[in-house]
Amino acid sequence: MNVPSVWHDPVVAEIHATRERLAEQYHNDLVTYSKAAEDRCRALGLTMVEDQERIAKMASPSLEVPRPG
């Protein structure tokens, strides 16, 4: 009979370890983690989707606002 072997991928293991570390750091509070992640992205100069939608609403109809994707 074939016995399945345990497969270990170091990248997957690192992802799981990071997830566990972040869950502990933010006390399993997904809202708090999400807010911190958004704040970090904005601090790095990234534009959030909500920001792009707000810019598009404020832009004049003749002004094209580039959309990602």
SSE blueprint and pairings:
Blueprint: H1 10-25, H2 30-43, H3 49-58
Give an overview of the whole structure.
The chain has 3 helices and no strands. The protein is mostly helical and 69 residues long. It has helices at residues 10-25, 30-43, 49-58. The chain has a domain at 10-57.
Order of helices and strands: HHH
The level of helicity is 55-70%
Low-pLDDT runs: none
What's the rounded overall pLDDT mean? Answer: 85
Could you say which overall geometry the principal axes of the C-alpha atoms support? Answer: elongated
Q: First CA to last CA: what distance?
A: 49 Å
Strand content: under 5%
Number of helix segments? 3
Alpha-carbon Rg, integer: 20 Å
Structural class: mainly alpha
* Largest sheet features: none
Number of strand segments: 0
Give the tags.
single chain; 69 residues; mainly alpha
At a glance:
This protein is 58% helix and 0% strand.
